[in-house]
Amino acid sequence: MFPEINRLRKVSTRISLFRGLNRTVNTGFSRVSSNDSTVYTEFCDMQNLCSDDFPRLRTRKKRCTANGMTGIVSNLLIADNRFIYMTDGALHVGSERYEDFAYDGTAATHELVLYGNRVVLMPERLVFDLGTQTFAPMDFSGTTQSVSTTELNVATYNTGNHVRPTRNFRDFSIEKVELDDNGKPRPVNYIYEKASGLEDYFKQTNPPNEYAVEDAVEPWQDTYFTKWLTIKSGETVEAQGENPSGVYRCTDILEGKTHSIDGEEYHTYGDLRRFVKIDNPYVKISRNDDTDADLFAGLKKGDYVKLSGMVHSVAALSPWSSNYDWGNYLEVLNGGFFKLYYVDRQCIVIKASIDRSVPYTGPLTVERVMPQADSGLMLEAENRLWTCSSQNHEIYCCKQGDCTNWQAYGDGISTDSYAATVGSEGGFTGIARQNDSVIFFKENWIIKLFGNKPSNFALASYNVPGVARGSEKSVVWINGVLYYLGYNGVYRFIPGGQPVQVSEAAFGTAHYRNGVAGRHGDKYYLSAQNQTGGWELFVLDTVRGMWHKEDGTHMKSCVTYNNLLYYIDAEGAVKCVEPENNLLDGETESRFEWFFETPDLYGDDFGKKYISKIQIQLKAAEDMQAEVYAQFRHGGAWVLVRRMHFEERRHVTAPVPVRRSDYLRLRVEGSGEMEIGGLQIDFAGGSDKVWQF
Q1: Three-state DSSP state, 425
Q2: Could you read off the pLDDT of 320-367 as tens digits, one per residue?
Q3: What sign does the CA torsion over 211, 212, 216, 222 have?
Q4: Cβ neighbour number for residue 318 with a 10 Å cutoff
Q5: Peptide bond into 244 cis (omega under 30)
Q6: Is cis: bond before 55, omega within 30 of 0?
């Protein structure tokens, strides 16, 4: 009996689910075998394809390029439907151009941060108000030089029964003052040198009955009375003989000849002045040099400033001043931070405990300074600006609602600024907002800040993969999840969880650096530099978990507005990945090239099968062109097996001729829009058995 010859078995596999990019070795296994319960395919390489019509495979949408927006040297912002960016020497807000500021032409990069209705310019350290269209400095640094003060307004009484000459205390001085109901310092009339309290002033200026007539007063008293009687109601005087000196305000002036004070009768030839002592007086620092110089222009009430550069200069004023103890003003003021309670052209008022007023004539530096921060690491969260310094290993935030004050620690309230030292190694590589927390990244650390005010701020550090150095612009927030480029690939970081790598399949063994990313709808767009220095643009569909590669676009900056992604390319032009309903007045690209390459189309089963026929079902747009190549052995040449050109829109099933082999890959290259709905693969093969016994 003759043995039975096994008949060839024919099997058809239809693929209608295309999952995107997979550049690992697993791409070639169990993807189109008839034994698979779910038949799908991935691609080991592609260009300009997307998941918009998943499970089908289609070309990406055309991009739109803005007209007239070129030469951009900063990142891109959008506010109130207006683009905000910098070109060489100018800030652009919509169609308006502003040049009235000190542009830093030496800076390698320029960063813009949107903060309410203001734009912060770095490294220029300026704030542009979108409402008033004016620039203001983030910092203030003013230095006053030494001045020559020839008069000290000090009327001095001592037990020697004489009055020293009065001298001008106004050119440049540090004085104890009281603020009136409008927050302005009250006028200071005279500063009296006294060894006892103000009660003695009543007795000396208002002599008892036996000195009731003016000509009966001793000569020194007459001079003293004349000075005293010039004090007006509401003015203050200082008793410098007290330690520390006392500040008193004249509350009222009583007319008449006889007055009772503490049960004792006093008869005066002038009006009687009554005083109250001022507890915890303010300190006014002023210089009136009869010029139009605005020494403190740029400062405002509520600012915190640092005073420095002071030296002991009072001794040089006059011989009698050199032996006088002017107290602790240098120790208290020099190098300290103080809140401003009043500011005008040549005067600031602070809160400090100095021993006495001082006719200061030396130099003084007044500064309101933002900390030196890492470039590109600044954002707005909870009405504060946040940044960090790798050099100092510190993080900072400004005063709530005021981006110009970064040392406002003295009030002890919820709006204070904040600073903290971070103990983990390495420099900062990224910053992001996650719900109500601010996240600081290093390459191997994530530092999370909890709390809603300085009194309950707390830092937690996690030794996990962070943002790769140079990829600070890759951090993007999408649907409650942070995505960023780390050293080994792209990670997703969920609040309360650990970073999870999501790019193993798409990247394979390749490493990428200098990532710049943005959000378009639910998609994560990442432009990164490969190991050879070239740029590649990847797109992660965060809902479906699939990666696609578009082209070699180098995105320098991204911004999302109304769910649309806008970016600046390597030439400084602005583009949008969506051709319609965007803010650009520009042109849509005409056509672009695309390709995809399949893995080995043979499965991983043990059947002796070969592919006998392949058909591609596609929708072709007008003037779509494509060429189909086949590779019949690993690493072999690509053989052209089919050309297609459709002059009008078509929905076709195109056969692809292939020859018998045990290895097969397809590569389809084309231009013009298209969509692939499926692949039909026909297998032919025999039994697994070689022969029968």
Answers
A1: coil
A2: 455 567 789 999 999 999 999 999 988 899 999 999 888 887 888 999
A3: positive
A4: 16
A5: yes
A6: yes
The secondary structure of 571-623 as a DSSP string is TS-EEES-SSS-S--EEE----EEEEE---SS-SS---EEEEEEEEEEEE-TT
Q: How many Å apart are CA 130 and CA 118, to the nearest integer?
A: 6
Residue 331: Cβ within 10 Å count: 11
Could you read off the pLDDT of 200-258 as tens digits, one per residue?
444 444 444 444 444 444 443 444 445 566 778 888 888 776 788 888 888 877 665 66
Q: Where are the domains of the chain?
A: 9-60+598-685, 142-368, 474-555
Beta-sheet pairing, 45-47 with 49-50: unpaired
Please state, in angstroms and rounded to a whole number, the distance separating the CA atoms of residues 630 and 657. Answer: 9
Q: Rounded to an integer, what distance in angstroms lies between the CA atom of residue 281 and that of residue 278?
A: 6
Q: Residue type for 151, please?
A: E
Alpha carbon distance 134, 447 (integer Å): 36
The whole-angstrom separation of Cα 542 and Cα 489 is 15
Q: What percent of the chain has pLDDT over 90?
A: 57
- What is the DSSP-derived secondary structure letter of residue 222? H
What are the φ/ψ torsions at residue 507 (nearest 5 degrees)? Answer: -90, -25
Contacts of 281 (CB under 8 A, 6+ apart): 176, 177, 178, 247
- CA-to-CA distance for 535 and 552, rounded, in angstroms? 5
Nearest to 564 by CA among 601, 523, 611: 523
- Of 140, 82, 142, 141, the residue nearest 112 (C-alpha): 82
| Separation CA 372–CA 123 (nearest Å) | 10
Contact present, 111 and 602 (Cβ < 8 Å)? no
Check if the beta carbon of residue 525 is closer than 8 Å to that of residue 519: yes
Distance of alpha carbon 342 from the chain centroid? 29
Asked: is 9-60+598-685 a CATH 2.40.50 domain? The reply is no
d(CA 23, CA 43): 7
Closest Cα partner for 681 from 51, 31, 47?
A: 31
Taking CA atoms, 592 is separated from 322, 483, 650, 670, 673, in Å, by 85, 28, 19, 9, 8
Which pLDDT belongs to residue 290? Answer: 57
Give the model confidence (pLDDT) of 385-417 as tens digits: 999 999 999 999 999 999 999 999 888 899 999
Provide the whole-model pTM: 0.86
For 32, the token pair is 């189109």
